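User: Please fill in residues for this 791-position structure.
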């Protein structure tokens, strides 16, 4: 939360575009309360007609359309006068995918016009013009306010006539709100807060508001927006510019179903290369590929798992051109040397350009720069073409494996400045006041599309500091920006990441240890090394595992006081690779979310509604980061389950509730839900090592369980054409039977014969990150179903 909403001024009002002031107490009127003698303002007659896709409504000059997109999604768009404009919405998929339509019934009586789908009901109040979304059983999910729900205030911005648009909603008393991107206010439940949605370093704007009641509002604009819920009876959404009020109502009721609907409209998430789920080693900054090779070599010699080395900024002679400074020799040869050690390399590439660069000059000559900024206009397809051809395309051809698209908000010039800068510019796509937040989507989308055209055999991986709706369909991970290296910074990243997950974007990470150090010599500070260990523990359970920071050294051995702890979690991350990569497939194939706030899986438990410092990592593992200095315990809430197992000891706990868990420096509390099956691979040093090694299946008794083990070639896009396999694994708790079902699918590199080592977890058995020595059963598997009783 960075700013409170700007005060409302006199507005053009609806439901009928009247020239009247807002009532003093419009929210009271939703429940029938009214000042003595006070009456609601009269409105123009409302006319409704059924259409093939929903309803068309006129009220005075205002026109509104409600379109049935699916059984669970309704699109509402309203404008102060006809015709309703149809501006570009590049974050949406085409209408056949995003809003294909569904069967509905229509009815009208003296009070309401009603649309009913197979899952949802929409009512239009024929007196007040406000909308109400309900379940088929009659439960109200959300109402527009009944005073004057929608307003349009004429404004002139950047030389264009537009409107400041507002819609007012009346949430239910105990409702909680999540999503809205990533923000640094430390809040998980946004009820009672105002959040500005404007791109900035560490702040990401995604206007998807998710409710604990199992619905979401997708505010369908890229304009700078305020979500204002300061007052208990109001949720007010205001955008500084727009020709219409435009939103989608999405219903689950499960949050996974809500996010599935969102990604169906805006794009599904591709698989990242398998190496991207391993460790990224980075700092500000490595000054040559010689230095990077030395560090990668030491990781390999000391058998510390690692997949990617990162080249941060100032590798260039001139920012914006692909020419390396004199510290770099034969880049292609050096990258080939890294690849032979099974190490990948990511390079920092900015959209901010030096005016002396050739890339800048070409764009400038064609008027394809953002005015008064050293940034190319990513809303122009021609500018995206030129940017690719002059910079990242040439780097990809050298052999780089990933691009770090820094400053993607964007920033406009040195020194850093980037607070929603597009709102005061004109863009190729239109008025920057209406497209304030769109840059990161178009920037990353352009790079992805060109990459896939140039080298389709290599999966896209991008790291970026900002995001917008639809960007999950780009092969990009967002990191939380240049945050402080403190417990305050760490604790704020946990809540920020969980809300980001509930914004429909599944891949997220942080600078382990924070970017800005607390002082000039952090490595000599035992307290900072402790913080780094705690952050590393948390980072190992983020979707992407990455260390970075403004520190003189940042490698594992640089933190000598806690190095054994770091190595433990590094090895654990790699042993969990079969589990993590299978969850990645669920993200792609089912619109799953890996890093899961507890409210996702226990939405009816009010104890989870404000719980932003614990999360599930996939379906099995409850993660409880340590967010305070010198802590040796932390409060852990266990939601309802037949039992929970301490991952480190195997000791079960029955029942739900809160308790004090032990948390010595080397142990972040981890608990595994009964009924879980966790596949763990052999000890490896990079993600694709030993693909045929034995898989340890840890079974946590107390409930039936299932897990689908996914495998593919690890890179390229053949998986989209069916080149992958899934092995379904089931546990029947009553009989103690493990069923490894018939393998589904095939890919050329597939290991056809596997050994599964089955471990029934108990106290002291099948615990921690080490390979379990004595197993309960072994299964030789050749793709055909195997059933075994395990004791």
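Assistant: Residues filled in for all 791 positions:
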């Amino acid at each position: 939360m960075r700013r409170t909403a700007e005060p409302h001024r006199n507005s053009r009002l609806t439901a009928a575009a009247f020239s009247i002031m807002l009532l003093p107490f419009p929210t009271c009127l939703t429940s029938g309360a009214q000042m003595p003698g006070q009456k609601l303002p009269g409105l123009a007659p409302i006319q409704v007609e059924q259409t093939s896709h929903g309803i068309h409504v006129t009220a005075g000059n205002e026109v509104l359309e409600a379109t049935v997109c699916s059984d669970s999604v309704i699109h509402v768009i309203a404008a102060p006068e006809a015709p309703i404009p149809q501006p570009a919405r590049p974050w949406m998929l085409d209408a056949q995918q995003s809003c294909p339509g569904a069967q509905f019934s229509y009815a009208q009586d003296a009070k309401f016009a009603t649309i009913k789908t197979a899952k949802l009901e929409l009512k239009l109040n024929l007196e007040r013009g406000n909308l109400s979304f309900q379940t088929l059983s009659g439960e109200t999910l959300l109402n527009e306010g009944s005073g004057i729900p929608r307003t349009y205030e004429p404004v002139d911005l950047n030389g264009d006539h537009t409107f400041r648009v507002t819609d007012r909603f009346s949430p239910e008393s105990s409702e909680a709100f999540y999503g809205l991107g990533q923000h640094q206010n430390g809040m998980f439940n946004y009820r009672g807060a105002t959040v500005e949605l404007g791109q900035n370093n560490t702040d990401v704007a995604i206007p998807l508001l998710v409710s604990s009641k199992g619905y979401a509002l997708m505010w369908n604009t890229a304009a700078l927006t305020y979500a204002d819920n300061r007052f208990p009876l109001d949720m007010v959404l205001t955008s500084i510019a727009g020709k219409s009020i435009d939103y989608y109502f999405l219903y689950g009721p499960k949050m996974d179903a809500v996010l599935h609907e969102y990604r169906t409209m805006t794009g599904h998430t591709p698989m990242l290369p398998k190496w991207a789920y391993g460790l990224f080693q980075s700092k500000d900054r490595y000054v040559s590929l010689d230095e990077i090779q030395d560090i990668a070599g030491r990781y390999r010699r000391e058998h510390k798992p690692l997949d990617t080395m990162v080249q941060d900024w100032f590798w260039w002679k001139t920012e914006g051109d692909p020419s390396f400074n004199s510290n770099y020799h034969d880049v292609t040869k050096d990258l080939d040397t890294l690849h032979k050690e099974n190490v990948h390399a990511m390079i920092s590439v900015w959209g901010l350009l030096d005016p002396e660069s050739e890339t800048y000059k070409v764009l400038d000559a064609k008027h394809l720069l953002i005015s008064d900024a050293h940034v190319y206009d990513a809303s122009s397809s021609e500018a995206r073409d030129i940017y690719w051809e002059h910079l990242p395309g040439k780097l990809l051809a050298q052999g780089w494996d990933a691009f770090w698209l820094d400053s993607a908000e964007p920033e406009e010039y040195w020194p850093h400045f980037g607070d929603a800068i597009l709102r005061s510019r004109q863009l190729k796509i239109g008025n920057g006041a209406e497209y304030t937040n769109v840059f990161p989507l178009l920037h990353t989308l352009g790079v992805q599309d060109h990459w896939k055209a140039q080298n389709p055999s290599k999966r896209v991986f991008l790291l970026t500091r900002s995001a917008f709706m639809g960007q999950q369909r780009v092969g990009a991970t967002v990191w939380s920006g240049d945050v402080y290296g403190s417990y305050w910074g760490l604790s704020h990243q946990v809540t920020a990441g969980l809300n980001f997950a509930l914004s429909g974007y599944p891949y997220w990470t942080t600078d382990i240890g924070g970017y800005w150090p607390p002082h000039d010599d952090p490595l000599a500070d035992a307290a900072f090394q402790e913080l780094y260990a705690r952050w590393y523990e948390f980072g190992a359970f983020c979707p992407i595992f990455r260390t970075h920071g403004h520190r003189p050294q940042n490698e594992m051995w640089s933190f000598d006081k806690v190095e054994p702890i770091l190595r433990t979690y590094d090895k654990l991350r790699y042993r969990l690779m079969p589990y993590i990569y299978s969850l990645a497939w669920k993200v792609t194939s089912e619109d799953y979310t890996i890093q899961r706030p507890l409210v996702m899986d226990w939405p009816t438990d009010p104890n989870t509604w404000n719980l932003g410092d614990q999360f599930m990592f996939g379906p099995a593992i409850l993660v409880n980061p340590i967010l305070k200095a010198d802590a040796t315990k932390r409060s852990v809430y266990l939601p309802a389950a037949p039992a929970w197992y301490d991952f480190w000891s195997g000791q079960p706990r029955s029942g739900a509730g809160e308790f004090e868990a032990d948390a010595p420096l080397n142990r972040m509390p981890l608990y595994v839900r009964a009924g879980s099956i966790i596949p763990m691979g052999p000890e490896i040093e990079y993600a694709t090592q030993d693909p045929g090694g034995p898989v340890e299946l840890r079974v946590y008794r107390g409930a039936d369980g299932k897990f689908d083990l996914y495998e593919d070639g690890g890179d390229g896009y053949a998986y989209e054409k069916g080149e992958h396999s899934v092995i379904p694994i089931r546990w029947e708790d009553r009989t103690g039977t493990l069923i490894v079902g018939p393998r589904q699918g095939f890919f050329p590199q597939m290991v056809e014969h596997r050994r599964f080592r089955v471990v029934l977890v108990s106290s002291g058995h099948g615990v921690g990150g080490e390979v379990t020595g004595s197993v309960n059963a072994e299964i030789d598997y050749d793709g055909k179903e195997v059933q075994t009783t395990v004791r």
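For context: The first helix runs from residue 95 to 98.
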